[in-house]
Write a structure and sequence with these properties.
Number of helices: 1
Order of helices and strands: HEEEEEEEEEEEEEEEE
Number of strands: 16
Radius of gyration: 36 Å
Structural class: mainly beta
CATH topology: Porin
Largest sheet: 8 strands, antiparallel, barrel
Shape: rod-shaped
Strand order of the largest sheet: 2-6-7-9-10-13-14-15
CATH class: Mainly Beta
Mean pLDDT: 77
CATH architecture: Beta Barrel
Number of domains: 1
């Protein structure tokens, strides 16, 4: 009987000890903290540089559609000859802001380009020449596209403006009523406003750095110029239109501030 009582007491003590041990705090160290993983976003302000080329959309001669008045006519029946140096080098910069909602990215961008080289030369009659160059142009455009994580495909469009230098100061020899006459005009440097539309792709190779390739069609409108033979009320008028295909590559740096520019995060455990 005593033996059974001892065995029962030992068993009860073992059960009670196990229950008490279960209530004690764990002696194992807490799990290590893992920082949240940032999710890339296109949202934020950015600035950048670009280089590329501009190519005239046509090789038409401005004098082909010249309007003569007061008995004026080209000398010898020649209307025009054109030598169009088509390609020009571009270098410039851009700045803008993007806002990403799910996969959709909306934004606005402004840029300015220096246009280097390339003149449009013409000859009227037997004597005379001129050249037309675009020294600067810029755009302010909206952008809209779809992001595939760090890869962005977008379309763009907006206002374009630029300075056009028409060096028409050389004399042109034509005829008035069959008699030789000299026609002159002033050099013209003016700023014109038109439009730009295009598309591009951009890839973020780091969280704050991205590269892009972009195409734009830029139309800066028309310039109307009149040439006159002094004292006889005769002359001619021409219209010059500047349209260009622009292809350029750029590098952008994005700031993580403003418009919720900091990337959202997802906790990882």
């Amino acid at each position: 009987m005593l033996r059974k009582l001892l065995m029962t007491t030992v068993a009860a003590s073992a059960i009670a000890g196990s229950a008490y041990a279960a209530d004690l705090p764990s002696r194992q160290p807490p799990p290590a903290y893992v920082p949240p993983v940032p999710i890339f976003t296109w949202t934020g302000f950015y600035i950048g540089l670009n280089v590329g080329g501009a190519f005239r959309a046509h090789n038409n001669d401005d004098f082909a559609d010249a309007v003569f008045f007061g008995g004026a006519a080209p000398l010898g029946g020649f209307v025009a000859a054109n030598n169009n140096n088509n390609g020009r080098f571009l270098v410039g910069g851009q700045a803008g802001v993007n806002w990403q909602v799910n996969q959709f990215v909306l934004g606005i961008e402004g840029d300015g380009q220096a246009v280097l080289g390339g003149t449009q030369n013409h000859v009227l009659g037997f004597v005379g020449n001129n050249d037309s160059t675009t020294g600067f142009f810029g755009t302010v455009r909206g952008r809209g596209g779809i992001a595939f994580d760090r890869f962005l495909v977008y379309g763009t469009g907006g206002v374009a403006f630029g300075s056009n230098n028409n060096h028409w100061g050389n004399t042109f020899i034509g005829t008035v009523g069959g008699a030789p006459a000299i026609f002159t005009t002033n050099n013209a440097t003016n700023t014109r406003v038109g439009y730009a539309v295009g598309a591009g792709v951009e890839y973020a190779f780091l969280n704050n750095w991205s590269v892009k390739v972009e195409y734009l069609f830029v139309d800066l409108g028309r310039t109307n110029l009149a040439f006159a033979a002094p004292g006889v009320g005769a002359g001619f008028a021409i219209r010059h239109r500047e349209q260009d295909h622009v292809i350029r590559a750029g590098l952008n740096y994005k700031f993580n501030w403003g418009f919720g520019g900091a990337a959202p995060v997802v906790a990882r455990y």
